[in-house]
Structure formats: structure tokens, C-alpha cells
Design brief:
10 helices, single chain, 4-stranded antiparallel β-sheet, binds protoporphyrin IX containing FE, 14 strands, alpha+beta
Length: 323
């Protein structure tokens, strides 16, 4: 894996396997229609790796990394002939009780570092170079909360794939040769009703999540009347193979505004896996038995992107038409 030199040199742009961090910024922007704007965006994406070096080298222990994801509409403006097989806009879901909306997004930037100031500096220079042709749809600064807890108080990220399972779950393989090594990325910004959550007894919270709260032990809910979040998000095929995704959720919030959130970000080799997780969460299994996490957590955004490898990204932006 590319991580072996990360103590000596900045982390290559588009490293999906960059370390989980203390801080992260999630930026979603749209790109105006003018050819000159597209040209500028292409040149910024072309220089993304250099920008990570420029800022990241100032403190290597800060482990700055950045992944750019491209939405379907922008992809089609850049290149009409070839696109990742599954890339399409986020499909909104209407469950009986809860809905997942689709919101605009041409580009996603997932910026991670041990230091919030490195994320800030990188974002500042990035947006400066993108200029006025891009419109900010959503900007969220997340932080690591104690032992990787979400603001509901549960440890979040435990079941992430590790070792060789990480690329096998998160990176496209030879099923789509042109885009091997890239990843589908889905983001959703959730806001929590913490007042209602706090009034929910801890054992009920634990049934909803599928793990114990203090010590993070998995709860077997095979015979429970309602499946937990953990079980609804577990995807298996007819042969019993499990399909994981790589999550790097981050809490964010402004207590003074009663804003408490989780920024969900999932990287997957197959887009259908995340879509199936969402279907099971919102529609339920069996239908109607939806994820009760949603009674306390409302998605305000929903967007799908493809994060190509560094070299594919460079080829894509260098070959873009009508610059
Ligand atoms: C409010 C938003 C969310 C919160 C607070 C949340 C929190 C959690 C927590 C605490 C766990 C258990 C520990 C772990 O394995 O990480 C978990 C597991 C998981 N979540 Fe979420 N989650 C959220 C949204 C989502 C969404 C939208 C998806 C997928 C589309 C998802 C997919 C998963 C998966 C795949 C697991 C691991 C299941 C397993 O044990 O194999 N989560 N989540």
C-alpha cells in the first residue's frame, strides 16, 4: 500500500487509504457552465497533488490528505466517451417515514489532517485558485470526538475494512479496468435531535445502533423484532459474501445553534453496495422496519461522486474538451 513512505513525504492526492484524522473538511461545490470555469477547475485538479505537497510538507506529522470526487454531470462535461460503470447522480429515497434527499454537487473535496489549521490552509488556497466560477453548496468542518465517537455517543468506524480487505472493499477492481483503483463516494450531512436521543434509555440506543455504548461490543440481533443500524448496513449476497465499505464519518456542530451532526462519507468499490445500505436503512428490512437511527438523524444533503486515482484524474483533466 502507498502508506509506507508517509512519514517522509506528503500523502499523494487521491489516497483513499490515507489515515483517519483528528480533523476533516468536507466541501461540495458546483461548477458554472462557462468553458473558462471548466478550464480553471481542470487546472486546479491537475495541480491538486502539488497543493497537497505545498501545504502538507510544512508539517509531515500533520498527515494532510485530499481526495477529489467528481459528480456525474461534471464527469460528462469533462469526458463523454468513458465513465465509471456505475457513476450516476445520488438516487433520492422515499421511505414510509424518512426520506434521503439528493442535493447538487459537481465536486467533492475530502480534506483530512491531524491539524485543523492544515485543513484550513489547504481549503483557503484551493478555493482561492478555483475562483468565482464554483459555488459552495456545503462546507463542513469535522472533528474527532474522543475515541472516534459520533455525537450520539457511540464509537463510529469500528467495522471498517482493514489490511487487504480495504482495497478489496473500497477500490474498483478489474470489473472496470479503465477506472481500477478509484472509488465511488457517497456523502450525506446528518443533523441529530440530541434532546430526543438523550431521553432515549441507553439500552434502547444500543438496540438501535447494534453495539454497546461504553465498550463498543457488537450486539447479536438476529432474533430481535427490529434490526439495528449495524445489521441493516450489513450487505451480503446469495452466497453469503459480505460487502463492506470504507467510512470516515466525522462529527460537527455548533452547540450555540443547537446544531449537532454527523457527516457521513462512504467509499466503495461498488456503488450498488452503498445504495443497498441506504435502501435497507430507509425502506427497512422487512419493508417498514426502517433504521430507527433515522428517528433522531435527518439527512440534509445527499450526493454521489467518483474519486479516480491520481493518474486517472490527471489524464481526465488534461484531456478535457473545449478548454
Ligand atoms: C447519522 C448517520 C450515521 C451514524 C451516526 C452512524 C453510526 C454508526 C455506528 C455507531 C456504527 C457502529 C460501529 C461501526 O462499525 O462503525 C455504524 C456502523 C455502520 N454504518 Fe453507520 N452511521 C450513520 C450513517 C450510515 C449510513 C448512511 C451508512 C451507509 C449508507 C452507514 C453504514 C454503516 C456500516 C456499513 C456499518 C458497519 C456495519 C457492520 O458492522 O458491518 N452508516 N454506523
Amino acid at each position: 500500500m502507498s502508506g509506507k513512505n508517509w512519514d517522509r513525504v506528503p500523502i499523494d492526492a487521491q489516497s483513499i487509504d490515507a489515515p483517519l484524522s483528528m480533523a476533516a473538511v468536507f466541501l461540495v461545490v458546483t461548477v458554472a457552465n462557462e468553458a473558462s470555469t471548466l478550464a480553471k477547475v481542470c487546472s486546479v485538479l491537475d495541480g491538486l497533488d502539488d497543493l497537497v505537497k505545498t501545504v502538507g510538507f510544512r508539517d509531515l506529522s500533520g498527515r494532510l490528505s485530499c481526495i477529489a470526487g467528481i459528480g456525474r454531470a461534471l464527469w460528462d462535461r469533462l469526458r463523454q466517451d468513458k465513465r465509471p460503470k456505475e457513476l450516476k447522480p445520488f438516487a433520492p429515497i422515499q421511505g414510509a417515514v424518512h426520506a434521503a434527499p439528493a442535493t447538487p454537487g459537481d465536486l467533492l473535496f475530502h480534506i483530512r489532517s491531524e491539524r485543523p489549521d492544515l485543513c484550513f490552509e489547504f481549503e483557503r488556497i484551493l478555493l482561492d485558485s478555483l475562483g468565482d466560477g464554483v459555488t459552495m453548496v456545503d462546507e463542513v468542518s469535522g472533528f474527532r470526538y474522543f475515541d472516534a465517537r459520533d455525537l450520539l455517543g457511540f464509537v463510529d468506524g469500528t467495522a471498517n475494512p482493514t489490511g487487504l480487505d480495504l482495497p478489496a472493499s473500497a477500490l474498483v477492481g478489474d470489473e472496470d479496468d479503465d477506472f481500477a483503483g478509484g472509488s465511488y463516494v457517497v456523502v450525506q450531512k446528518y443533523l441529530h435531535d440530541l434532546r430526543a436521543w438523550k431521553q432515549t434509555p441507553t439500552p434502547v440506543q444500543e438496540e438501535i445502533i447494534g453495539r454497546t455504548k461504553i465498550d463498543n461490543i457488537e450486539i447479536d440481533d438476529d432474533d430481535a423484532p427490529r434490526k439495528s443500524h449495524k445489521s441493516l448496513a450489513t450487505i451480503t449476497d446469495a452466497d453469503g459474501n459480505e460487502y463492506d465499505i470504507l467510512r470516515d464519518n466525522m462529527p460537527f456542530g455548533r452547540p450555540g445553534h443547537q446544531e449537532f451532526g454527523t457527516y457521513f462519507i462512504g467509499y466503495s468499490r461498488y456503488l450498488w453496495v452503498i445504495e443497498k445500505m441506504l435502501q435497507r436503512m430507509y425502506v427497512g428490512d422487512p419493508p417498514g422496519a426502517y433504521d430507527r437511527l433515522l428517528d433522531f438523524s435527518t439527512p440534509h444533503t445527499g450526493a454521489t461522486f467518483f474519486a479516480p486515482t491520481r493518474s486517472t484524474l490527471q489524464m481526465l483533466v488534461q484531456a478535457a474538451p473545449e478548454k
